[in-house]
Amino acid sequence: MKFIQGQDRTQTHLFPVSLDQTIDRDNQVRLIDLFVDKFDLQKLGFQTSMVENGRPAYHPSVLLKLYIYGYMNRIRSSRCLEKECKRNIEVMWLIQCLCPDHNTIANFRRDNSRAIKKVFRETVHMASWFDLIGGKLVAGDSTKLRAQNSKKNNFNQKKINRHLEYIENKLAEYEKNWPTATGINGKNLRKKSANRNSGNKIIAAWSNS
Questions:
Q1: 69-86 pLDDT, tens per residue?
Q2: Which of 15, 22, 133, 208 has its CA 20 to 30 A from that of 43?
Q3: CA 40 → CA 88, 118, 126, distances in Å?
Q4: pTM for the whole thing?
Q5: What are the residues whose beta carbons fall under 8 Å from the beta carbon of 179, sequence distance 6 or more?
Q6: How far apart are CA 63 and CA 78, in angstroms?
Q7: Among the residues of the chain, which ranges form H helices?
Q8: Is 132 buried (19+), middle (13-18) or exposed (0-12) by CB count in 10 A?
Q9: Boundaries of each Transposase InsH N-terminal domain copy (predicted)?
Q10: What does the domain layout of the chain look like in residue ranges?
């Protein structure tokens, strides 16, 4: 009985395959790339200042793309994100084969936490613009009664405000626990083509709406 055989690891190709050809046209990383490139990161509050001495810094868009990819794929640890940069072909395409270390990744998250929050709020606006979420107005006439409706499905302004406060608290808790997830303590942190053109038009329409 024959089995499916893999390719010889030392096999060379007559027609080299580019990195872009290995990523499907509908892959999520292409959307992340377009989404981040449409932002004025300095206006959102990201640190974009450059230092004259020493090694050049990574552009904030590179690390933001990496973080969004991590959130979408449940990769929270900066050490794990560092590994993905070296072995994950999607990440290689997304950040153009750059390999920031875990300290750089963690420091970016720490130094730009407020700006990152703004970006994730913009994802909700974009989802609404593309009709991926409803956002419908639910209104009732005359007397409002809870009746037999489940309390968890019954909302008023007070409950909505409480839920928004809960979300903000969860974000703050996430920030507080970030050094633990990355495996770095706070002290150490302190030390230290056609489809694309079409996608550009769609994202541009959203960003100008």
A1: 999 999 989 999 999 999
A2: 133
A3: 27, 12, 16
A4: 0.66
A5: 106, 185, 186, 189
A6: 11
A7: 28-37, 41-44, 60-72, 78-87, 89-94, 102-111, 113-129, 157-182, 186-191, 194-207
A8: exposed
A9: 18-110
A10: 20-48+57-137+149-192
